[in-house]
Design brief:
Layout: E1 2-6, E2 13-17, E3 23-25, H1 40-47, E4 73-77, H2 81-87, E5 96-99, E6 105-106, E7 112-114, E8 121-122, E9 125-131, E10 147-154, E11 157-158, H3 159-163, E12 179-180, E13 185-186, E14 198-203, E15 206-212, H4 220-227, E16 238-240, E17 262-267, E18 271-279
């Protein structure tokens, strides 16, 4: 299934995309798409519904983040061998873990706000993993049973804040609108191998990122098991698993986002996002 959330900010309802690309309203059957409603049993009930019996939603309706009520937004850094090479970094001996604040989460096509005085805001197309079953100390062999689905993430990053202002990476990762999620939450039955998906990102129609999840260093079952040693994973938590090469920081010379530019990005089978960059100064 391709599940989604639609409607005005803060008032999103759950829905699904049917086989003809039509959005259908699930709100009579599901309170929201997140947290307690992402368990396998609950999603099996949704899968048994006939989409033709569900109300149609207008195609021009805003899409919200594909997961609501996210508890933790966990990110993995330098997790693609070719991206590590472009930044001049060694592949880390263990996963690099940082956070995006949940206030960064936005819809897949919402505007992205450049922080005031920002000069180095960058892009990163990433594969997101959404947890559907809680766990601690999860065995790698059991990790896939904890996955509700997959989605596109744009891990937008202010590189000066991240790398030049001392402290952890988090301050450059969690600005408002820096975490678009969606358009869809795609259930695992539609993603036979999440480690063999093409992924790409363009800015003003120039393709900067053109990679594949095949170059992921630490793969999803390992990441779930690894993270669960340090924290419990809860339904609705999002894990963003790293980016392929082609980020702005890796260009020679570096290229960063400016107001008025348009980002377009996607992952094979998981849909596309499109965001316009807007200066926070004018709002």
């Amino acid at each position: 299934m391709k599940l989604l959330r639609f409607g005005p900010k803060g008032q999103e309802k759950p829905g699904l995309l049917d086989a003809d690309g039509v959005i259908r309203d699930l709100s009579a059957h599901l309170p929201d798409l997140g947290g307690a409603y992402l368990g396998r049993a609950r999603l099996d009930v949704v899968a048994a519904l006939n989409p033709a019996d569900l109300p149609i939603v207008s195609a021009d309706t805003r899409l919200g983040p594909c997961v609501g009520g996210v508890g933790k937004f966990i990110c993995i850094g330098l997790n693609y061998s070719d991206h590590a090479a472009e930044t001049g970094a060694e592949v880390p001996p263990e996963p690099v873990v940082f956070n995006k604040w949940t206030s960064a989460i936005s819809g897949p096509n919402d505007d992205v706000l450049l922080p005031r005085d920002s000069q180095k805001t960058d892009w990163e197309v990433e594969l997101g993993v959404v947890i559907g079953k809680a766990g601690r100390y999860i065995d790698e062999a059991d990790a896939r049973a904890h996955v509700a689905g997959y989605c596109v993430v744009n891990d937008i990053s202010e590189r000066e804040y991240q790398l030049e202002r001392s402290g952890t990476w988090d301050k450059g990762k969690g600005c408002d609108t820096f975490g678009p999620l969606g358009p869809w939450l795609v259930t695992p039955d539609e993603v036979p191998d999440p480690h063999d998906l093409a992924m790409w990102l363009e800015v003003d129609e120039h393709r900067y990122q053109d990679g594949s999840t095949r170059t992921m260093v630490y793969r999803i079952p390992y990441l779930i098991s690894y993270l669960s040693r340090f924290m419990s994973l809860q339904p609705g938590d999002v894990i963003s698993t790293g980016t392929p090469p082609g980020v702005g920081m890796g260009q020679k010379p570096p290229v960063y986002l400016k107001p008025g530019q348009c980002m377009r990005l996607g992952i094979e089978g998981l849909g596309e996002q499109q965001q316009t960059v807007v200066s926070d100064e004018v709002l």
